[in-house]
Specification:
Elements (H helix, E strand, L loop, with lengths): L8 E5 L2 E7 L31 E7 L2 E7 L2 H16 L3 H5 L2 H14 L6 H15 L4 H10 L10 H14 L4 H17 L9 H9 L2 E3 L5 E3 L2 H20 L29 H9 L3 H13 L3 H6 L5 E2 L4 E4 L10 E4 L2 H7 L16 H14 L8 H14 L2 H8 L3 H7 L6 H7 L8 H4 L8 H21 L1
Antiparallel strand pairs: 1-2, 2-3, 3-4, 5-6, 7-8, 8-9
Helix pairs in contact: 6-7, 7-9, 11-13, 11-15, 15-16, 15-18
């Protein structure tokens, strides 16, 4: 049997005594009887009852404070709370009574290790609810536990751009790819010099929408959808790198991926006419003939042309071997050399060395082409040599897959951008454009046989036996 407590119970809080007294109470007296009403009083009144009650008493600020409780445990809990408050000089708790005092005491106990005041914690809870809206803080915490903990470092976009571009170089990516990625990502880093976790998809979309470039005359123009897609893809690669390295949550789509690509209407590729390529090559200075002819009749890219060497060309087997370190796609490529190209190259062929030894940058080589074209009144365009080769080659071979391999392109791109830009007859004429002094140049290319000519020859053959018989 539990030992009954001895009253008063005394709890010391430093020099202050907190006492609990047992003070039973009687029920209130009945109201006086109304003499006019019928007498319904029982013959014998029951004995009066008393109820347990406990009074908590202590002094604070020279004033005695007394509080009554119906249960002893309630009085004990309040006494413990008051003791803690007195020791901590917490005047707020001393002014609370009843259930409020218990709630306050529990809250203080639960949050004591955080080192924050209750009003600070309450403000944080309110702010959190505003952000989460219908999501509970517990759901947010579980989400963070699953995804947020995968973030190992908080890096700024300029720092991540520097890291990614360094990796591209170390991984041996082509100069063509590195140059374009570096240019686009540096522009992005300049526009967003903040932490990557702070960037939203809307901000990226707004940035892409106002990007500017330069036209052929150097005027500032808004970037075309295709160019904007290239910038968007570079940013997506940056965000994927950040996620893989723990700067963004793993297992989740990035803000960059949420940016939609734009629909692109592919413009018709411009190609040289037979007369234009003859004029450009016949009037070109010796230093330009080899690179122009190789681009026109083998479709080598300007970036690839810049690193092409004479030892990559075999005039006997009639093939150009583009090693993987030269090609844009990092894949070795063999391109057949037509006889007219060999004729253009023969006077300038060397045993070794770069074919474009005069130029170090692709832009400088293109500018040299452009200046020569303008002097002849011919627009050479950014990719006009390569476009011409692919268009005329596919018109002659009727083999998209073969031309895709030779040009280092995809069959899908060939079908979408190069079909039906030239006829087979024009294609045959393109690959017999020889230098003026070459013996082959004096031979006139045979015109394609028309249906009318074929029918005429067939009729002539049928009539010959008749003529012989008549003569006999």
């Amino acid at each position: 049997m539990a030992k009954q407590p001895t009253f008063p119970i005394t709890i010391m809080a430093g020099a202050t005594a907190i006492r609990i007294y047992r003070s039973p109470v009687k029920p209130s007296k009945p109201k006086p009887l109304d003499l006019a009403a019928p007498d319904t009083t029982p013959a014998k009144e029951p004995k009066s009852k008393t109820y347990d009650s406990y009074v908590l008493s202590y002094y604070s600020g020279g004033k005695r404070i007394r509080t009554r409780f119906n249960e002893l445990q309630q009085a004990r809990d309040k006494a413990d709370a008051i003791k803690t408050s007195l020791l901590n000089e917490d005047s707020t708790a001393l002014q609370l009574t009843g259930e409020d005092a218990l709630i306050y005491a529990r809250a203080k106990m639960l949050t004591s290790h955080l080192g924050l005041a209750l009003d600070q914690l309450a403000q944080e809870a309110v702010d959190l609810r505003k952000i989460l809206e219908k999501t509970t803080p517990m759901e947010a915490a579980r989400f963070y536990d699953r995804f947020g903990k995968t973030v190992k470092a908080d890096k700024s976009i300029p720092a991540i751009v520097e890291e990614l571009t360094a990796n591209l170089k170390a991984d041996g990516k082509s100069e063509y790819h590195f140059r374009d990625m570096n240019r686009r990502l540096q522009a992005f880093a300049l526009a967003f010099p903040k932490h990557i976790m702070e960037v939203t998809s809307k901000e990226i979309s707004d940035w892409l929408r106002v990007l500017k470039g330069r036209d052929k005359k150097g005027r500032e123009v808004t970037l075309a959808p295709k160019s904007r897609n290239h910038y968007r893809n570079a940013v997506v690669q940056l965000f994927n790198h950040a996620r893989d390295h723990g700067y963004l949550p793993k297992g989740m789509p990035t803000e960059a991926q949420a940016v939609k690509t734009l629909d692109v209407i592919t413009p018709t590729n411009e190609i040289f006419s037979i007369e234009e390529i003859q004029k450009v090559l016949n009037t070109a200075p010796g230093r330009l003939i080899a690179p122009m002819a190789i681009k026109a009749f083998c479709g080598v890219r300007t970036e690839e042309m810049l690193n092409l060497r004479w030892e990559h060309l075999n005039l006997e087997t009639k093939y150009i071997t583009l090693p993987s370190e030269v090609t844009k796609t990092k894949q070795r490529r063999l391109v057949p050399m037509p006889d007219n190209l060999i004729a253009w190259l023969t006077p300038y062929k060397k045993a070794t060395g770069r074919i474009c030894e005069r130029w170090q940058r692709a832009q400088a080589l293109f500018q040299a082409f452009d200046r020569h074209g303008k002097r002849q009144g011919v627009d050479v365009g950014a990719n006009k040599f390569r476009n011409s080769y692919i268009s005329y080659r596919v018109a002659v071979t009727h083999d998209v897959a073969r031309v895709a391999l030779e040009s280092g392109n995809s069959p899908r791109v060939i079908q979408r951008e190069y079909l039906e830009l030239a006829t087979e007859a024009d294609g045959k004429r393109w690959f017999v454009v020889f230098p003026p002094e070459a013996p082959q140049a004096k031979k006139k290319a045979k015109a394609p046989k028309t249906e009318g000519a074929k029918a005429k020859r067939k009729t002539k053959r049928q009539e010959q036996p008749v003529a012989v018989e008549a003569k006999q």
